[in-house]
Amino acid sequence: RKQAEDALRASEERFRAAVESAPAGIFVAAEGWFAYVNDLGARLLGADSPATLIGTAVLQRVHADFLPSVRERLRVVVEESRPVPAAEENWVRLDGDLLEAEWSAVPFSYEGQQAALVFFRDIAGRKRQEEMQIRSQKLESLGTLAGGIAHDFNNLLYAISGNTEL
User: Fold this and answer.
1) pLDDT on residue 148
2) Which whole-number Å values give the CA distances from 165 to 89, 102, 156, in the listed order?
3) CA dihedral over 138, 122, 79, 18, signed as positive or negative
4) pLDDT classification of 22: cutoffs 50, 70, 90
5) How far apart are CA 137 and CA 31, in angstroms?
6) What is the DSSP letter of 60?
7) Is residue 53 pLDDT above 90, yes or no?
8) What would the DSSP string read from start to end of 64-119?
9) How far apart are CA 135 and CA 118, in angstroms?
10) Do the Cβ atoms of 108 and 83 come closer than 8 Å?
11) pTM to 2 decimals?
């Protein structure tokens, strides 16, 4: 029994270390409340520590425009025990700033009750990079178009110049 308890404790410590060092925010939503939040998740949501979020309503942290879809996705995870794929939605940090996040969730049993294990990450940097790439591609297309027009115009001028010389 002692060996089993030690093995369980070691397993829990390994699991906790893995979750705490994960490169994504992780939280457990049980009955609509934050039951667990890792350190990165707390920082992404603007909290000083996970304890600030524990016991508060998950849907309070969701931007009003995305509330119906987040509510439905969490319902699917908890009530139908089905994972939901990643979605990009805005969340609200404790200071009121927006968090552009990509999140997904899987069914999870937490302290004997059905819950959702949610993984999320800040995608604002990625979205800025994508916008810059699109802008760069537009400028490149504009440059190619201008080059083509200049080439055609140059051909016309060459023909006019040739006729004038004759």
Assistant:
1) 85
2) 67, 66, 14
3) positive
4) confident
5) 46
6) G
7) yes
8) GGGHHHHHHHHHHHHHS---EEEEEEEEE-TTS-EEEEEEEEEEEEETTEEEEEEE
9) 33
10) no
11) 0.72
For residue range 113-162, list pLDDT tens digits in order: 999 999 999 998 778 888 888 888 888 888 888 888 888 888 888 888 88
DSSP run (H or E) holding 122: strand 113-122
Helix (H, G, I), strand (E, B) or coil at 57: strand
Task: Give the full edge-to-edge strand order of the sheet including 84-92.
Answer: 33-37, 25-30, 113-122, 98-110, 84-92
Q: Under 8 Å CB-to-CB from 46, ≥6 apart: which residues?
A: 93, 94, 95, 97, 99
Residue 94 has pLDDT above 90, yes or no: yes
Q: How far apart are CA 12 and CA 152, in angstroms?
A: 71
- Cα distances from 145 to residues 107, 141, 142, 158, in angstroms, run 52, 6, 5, 20
Residue tagged 């110049």 (tokens): 161
Q: How many residues does the chain have?
A: 166
Return the pLDDT at 41: 95
- End-to-end, the C-alpha distance of the chain in Å comes to 107
pLDDT tops 80 at residue 17: yes
Instruction: Report residue 65 as tokens.
Output: 């425009």
